[in-house]
UniProtKB/TrEMBL annotation, chains A, B:
UniProt-annotated stretches for the region Disordered: 1-20
Cited InterPro entries: ThiC, ThiC-associated_dom, ThiC/Bza_core_dom, ThiC/BzaA/B
HAMAP family: ThiC (MF_00089)
Biological classification of the source: Bacteria, Pseudomonadati, Pseudomonadota, Alphaproteobacteria, Rhodobacterales
EC number: 4.1.99.17
Function recorded in the entry: Catalyzes the synthesis of the hydroxymethylpyrimidine phosphate (HMP-P) moiety of thiamine from aminoimidazole ribotide (AIR) in a radical S-adenosyl-L-methionine (SAM)-dependent reaction.
Cellular component terms (Gene Ontology): cytosol
Residues annotated to bind substrate: 213, 242, 271, 307, 327-329, 368-371, 407, 434
UniProt gene name: thiC
Reactions this protein catalyses: 5-amino-1-(5-phospho-beta-D-ribosyl)imidazole + S-adenosyl-L-methionine = 4-amino-2-methyl-5-(phosphooxymethyl)pyrimidine + CO + 5'-deoxyadenosine + formate + L-methionine + 3 H(+)
Descriptive protein name: Phosphomethylpyrimidine synthase
Obligatory cofactor(s): [4Fe-4S] cluster
Pathway the protein acts in: Cofactor biosynthesis; thiamine diphosphate biosynthesis
Biological process (GO), any one: thiamine diphosphate biosynthetic process
Segment forming the signal sequence: none
């Protein structure tokens, strides 16, 4: 897991036994909504298993990948004529790339597009259109995507789950998506300057999503290396990716990432703003921050983490914490506020921030700068004071038709997780919750993908719409390629466990298909349906390497004589053979006793 | 993680910065109750962190380890004169070791002890003594052990948690232990023929425990190899170990394991009984099974998994399951019942089984032979029909003063976990629950330690007393040394997260100590307090290898300029400096607004 990797080339090609398919729209017939179909062994006599596919063109064998050209731009032309205008964007400044020059400067992305923005007075957000009763292509796209190829009419549906008061429909319609976005319960992060994106939706009544964080290394890293981090994360299922790069070249690297990303990209603009003032928090100004928002909005960043809830009066509430302020953005703003004895410029200028967001449809991810960094600090006054402020800010953003999600903790013991979800729903008007973990104990550095997967699965079940992954390196170091994969797979597990518990109608199909394959000893199917076919196969091979064993009708754990599954098959055969077994079972259920008369004892 | 390991020697020596200490008894002054003290850096100005220590003499640098001599026998002489008798035990039969002879036969353990059993009519179980009002050395031992060195009087205690109706005391007294055992709510698995054991308690009102499974490999394995599997599992925190060996040499290997085990050993006797009849389930008889119980009870096995709840009328209920019967023991008994069309001999002879258990104080682990093997089969009629039977059998066992715990699932989605716990408490009279996982989704073979840790943490919180670990190889192959460690650490995380959420008074101390170390950049302390210091240190070294960095006042993730923790320290300093900050915070809490007059804006 810890070997050091050479600079990778871009990973392409389908996952095992998988084929990418595209579903067309009806309102917008030009749509091509991607899904992945996993082919099963003929003996299964089952249709392919259809799963959600966030990987974009990289897993399409037909696609020609050239990161210097960027991805196709399916959303080009989806904007409404008259609502948007092209204009000469802001000029790239030396500080945008940390004043690096010459050969240490990452080259600009070869193709520069003129940015789009809303025409004067217009809002071009999905929320604005939803409220106007318009079903955008993005809305129909995600409606089709969320149904995972299910045809509502064709099946009778058994709903099984507890959604804690959410309203997950049997079948997602474009109109349902529109209503959810209009109400603020869901967002589609999709900047009008990121036409490469394949739209996805974040909301409590949809599949639980996961985010993976990437960032440039301290050492100068190549564009290819940075793009591969993105491609690797979405190959395993990351629904959005946050670029947390700092230091040099971040403007140019961001361009390479966005132009090659089929998933929404999020950033924390305060990081770049801080770079522009040489890392001195006190030197930050609204003007520098504002300029950074425009810079990144024009590039096509889909959502911004904005720590506008870190207000001056809350800072003393953190002074006696065990771990103080652990959010980078939060601590930067806290330092600025304390130094100047002033209220946060993010809070004071929130209106103007909204005006920028609505002009490009950049979604808010209102940051939890005061999230707890330890079990001891969970659910404290500082955390909840900030949450209340995020609720106020949500209302202001909604008045401006801006899309909003709310970031959440952090470190929280299991018995305090639900309070976080309940408070967030109540305080923030059901705006989507986007949580980091939470970690359910502090005592396992090196395993925090696991301490946090426990909390993530639970809070996802309770209603969190997107889970930010945690890798095994959390608290210790920078995740390598293997850590990123483990983090993504772990969070796909948490998100899927949450979908199952919420009773999402499409979630259980994959579990059942895998379990049938397991029971019928279709080893290849079992590997291929799993979240990580390569690892499943290699673990099996360690015990039973031979190809023949992939056809073996016994488990690698027990061997032929001792396999309970094998015995169960005999039981099923015998049970079915035995005339009236079912009636007898029925008789038992009705309170009957043994169905064999006692005197039959000892026969055979 | 997957490299193949050579045959290991026995792993000995303390964990980093750790020292084994022993606490004496008061009722029984001769007791030496082991705990581990983790030394912190002087700058912490904190006492050592005391943690539970299941590792036995192997981590004691003073101890001389010779597996051919076995461990010291602290419990020798703890039995009550007149209650027990030594006698000539059963002769070892060729079939006990699978008829293997010559050099392929694992040598018998060099020292054979004459077995102990209860004298005619006596019960020598902890439950019998507890009901008689007697506080045994075992009871005082576990009482001291559960308090983790806390002196109740010396601290004022803040209880924080939700124990779902359990009754966890502020401080565990020997009398409390006695009452819990008398009521059947807790057990101390400790065969009178296993004097090497350091007593531990399993119950809902005590620390959540974990079990690790080991077993001999298909290839003939050395005694040292088998003992090392045990030592390795308890080094990382396994509280009990189940020996699931099959095939040859299992009698002799079991002897080597028990004589060298400081933790209770559990087995599934039906596995060996099946070996004795050449693996043909139909050929099993009560007499062969009974003989196997005696054989293993005389060796000192502390608890037996007995699948007496798999009754003939329940078998048809499994016929239409997605994954049928996945328990080995359950499927063996089901096959026997179906073939003979007879009720299970385990069920019919349960009284006689109790008489054997009480004569040696072997605890029951009533097996869930019909547990669900997939999300689809969770909480179904077969599973709950068996659970009701286990409830009946519990009452019978309790009438005979036998100690009982109940095994549980399996594969269960999150929304169906609590029903399992509630039904078990109600049906089985609060007998301790001992669950495998449960796995919260089927779609991640290769990561089932994680899919199950989510369910294990939750059901542990709800009241499960012991969690049976699952390794990454579950469903795929045999766990190697690294898999066992990952499985144990993962389950220590689940158990500890449960202790925190239940509000166990000693649980949070370790989290707080680690978080303080993290906030103060005491890297070595952070590693040493963690569940796996080696992994934490190596992950940190991958990013910041230099020794100097272990003293660095910044995180390896962000570097010096960007570290939020560092900024928090500045904030704390400034906050404390600023006169009246606390009052201002108070003012805010009372609904005040900013405490800086607006005209102060722009100063500095």
């Amino acid at each position: 897991m810890n070997k050091h990797n050479p600079i990778p080339t871009i990973t392409t090609g389908p996952l095992p036994a998988s084929r990418k398919v595209w579903h067309p729209g009806q309102i917008h017939p030009g749509l091509r909504v991607p899904m992945r179909e996993i082919e099963l062994h003929p003996s299964a006599m089952e249709p392919p298993v259809t799963v959600y596919d966030a990987s974009g063109p990289y897993t399409d064998p037909e696609a020609v990948i050239d990161i210097a050209r960027g991805l196709p731009r399916p959303r080009e032309g989806w904007t409404v004529a008259g609502d948007v205008e092209r204009y000469d964007g802001r000029q790239v400044q030396p500080e945008d790339n940390g004043f690096v020059t010459g050969e240490r400067l990452t080259p600009a992305f070869p193709r520069q597009y003129q940015p789009l923005r809303a025409t004067e007075g217009k809002a071009v957000t999905q929320m604005a259109y939803a409220r106007a009763g318009i079903i955008t292509p993005e809305m129909e796209f995600v409606a089709i995507r969320e149904n995972l190829g299910r045809r509502a009419a064709r099946e009778q549906l058994i709903r099984d789950g507890n959604d804690w008061g959410a309203a997950i429909p049997d079948h997602v319609t474009p109109e349902f998506v529109r209503q959810e976005i209009a109400s603020g319960r869901a967002i589609i992060p999709a900047n009008i300057n990121h036409p490469e994106v394949e739209p996805m939706i974040i909301g409590r009544n949809f599949l639980v999503k996961i985010n993976a964080n990437i960032g440039n290394s301290a050492v100068t890293s190549s564009m290819e290396e940075e793009v591969e981090k993105l491609v690797w994360a979405i190959r395993w299922g990351a629904d959005t990716v946050m670029d947390l790069s700092t230091g040099r070249n971040i403007h140019n690297i961001r361009d390479w990432i966005i132009r090659n990303s089929p998933v929404p990209i999020g950033t924390v603009p305060i990081y770049q703003a801080l770079e522009k003032v040489g890392g001195i928090a006190e030197d930050l100004t609204w003007e520098i921050f504002r300029d950074t928002l425009i810079e990144q909005a024009e590039q096509g960043v889909d959502y911004f983490t904005i720590h506008a809830g870190v207000r001056l009066p809350f800072i003393p509430l953190t002074a006696e914490r065990v771990t103080g302020i652990v959010s980078r953005g939060g601590s930067i703003m806290a330092k600025w506020c304390l130094h100047h004895h002033r209220e946060s410029f993010l809070y004071e200028h929130f209106d103007e921030i909204c005006d920028i967001m609505r002009a490009y449809d950049v979604s808010f991810s209102l940051g939890d700068g005061l999230r707890p960094g330890s079990i001891a600090d969970a659910n404290d006054a500082a955390q909840f004071a900030e949450l209340e402020t995020l609720g106020e800010l949500t209302q202001i953003a909604w008045e401006k038709d801006c899309q909003v999600m709310i970031e959440g903790p952090g470190h929280v013991p299991m018995h305090k997780i639900k309070e976080n979800m309940d408070k967030q729903l109540e305080t923030c008007g059901e705006a989507p919750f986007y949580t980091l973990g939470p970690l359910t104990t502090d005592i396992a550095p090196g395993y925090d993908h696991i301490t946090s997967a426990i909390g993530a699965a639970m809070i996802g079940w309770f209603g969190t719409a997107m889970l930010c992954y945690v890798t095994p390196k959390e608290h210790l170091g920078l995740p390598d390629r293997d850590d990123v994969k483990v983090g993504v797979i772990t969070y796909k597990i948490a998100a899927h466990a949450a979908d199952l518990a919420k009773g999402h109608p499409a979630a259980k199909l994959r579990d059942d298909a895998l379990s049938r394959a397991r029971f019928e000893f279709r080893w290849e199917d079992q590997f291929n349906i799993s979240l990580d076919p390569d690892t499943a196969r290699s673990f099996h091979d360690q015990t039973l390497p031979k190809e023949a064993h992939k056809l073996a009708h016994f488990c690698s754990m027990c061997g032929p004589k001792f396999c309970s599954m094998k015995i169960s098959h005999d039981i099923r055969a015998e049970a079915r053979a035995q005339q009236g077994m079912e009636d007898m079972a029925q008789k038992y259920r009705e309170g009957g006793d043994l169905y064999m008369p006692a005197d039959a004892a000892g026969q055979d």
